[in-house]
Amino acid sequence: MWTAVIAGSLCCYALKLLGYSVPRRILDNERVKNVAALLPVALLAALALTQSLSTGQHLTLDPRAGGLVAAVACAAKKAPFLVTVVVAVAVTAGLRAWT
Predict the structure, then answer these.
(1) Is residue 56 left, alpha or beta, with left meaning phi > 0 and alpha meaning psi from -120 to 50?
(2) Residue pair 58/42 in contact by the 8 Å Cβ criterion
(3) How confident is the model over 38-64, as pLDDT tens digits?
(4) Which residues have C-beta within 8 Å of that of residue 79, sequence separation ≥ 6?
(5) What does the pLDDT look like over 16-41, one tens digit per residue?
(6) Which residues, at least 6 apart from 85, have a Cβ–Cβ distance to it below 8 Å?
(7) How far apart are alpha carbons 2 and 37 in whole angstroms?
(8) Strands, DSSP E only, in 51-96?
(9) 3-state SS assignment for residue 1
(10) Pick from 18, 35, 48, 67: most CB atoms within 10 A?
């Protein structure tokens, strides 16, 4: 196990060093800037979706999905982040208590 941890750490370090060697002209490209700005949002959305709608390797529709729907509705209404989180938690808890 420690071999895998050390190998993974070395790979991550090498990847970080590789990022420092990217030429400046590539980093200044407008398309690269746009992708770099939107990539974290896309990855976080994918993580939230998979954590809300899956258990192991199976898709499930449980109270977490209701919380996700409530959070999306709050975000569509441009509610503050804290309000969005509180509403999503309350809906999830309510659905868990109801089922």
Answers:
(1) left
(2) no
(3) 999 899 989 988 888 888 888 888 899
(4) 87
(5) 999 888 899 998 999 999 998 999 98
(6) 71
(7) 35
(8) 54-55, 58-59
(9) coil
(10) 67
- The answer to whether the beta carbons of residues 64 and 88 sit under 8 Å apart is no
Measured between alpha carbons, how far is residue 49 from residues 2, 36, 44, 83 in Å? 31, 21, 9, 19
And the tokens for 49? 């979706």
CA 54 from centre of chain: 14
Distance CA 35, CA 40 (A): 9
In angstroms, the CA 58 to CA 94 distance is 23
Site of tokens 């999503």: 88
pTM of the model: 0.59
Phi, psi angle pair for 55, to nearest 5°: -130, 115
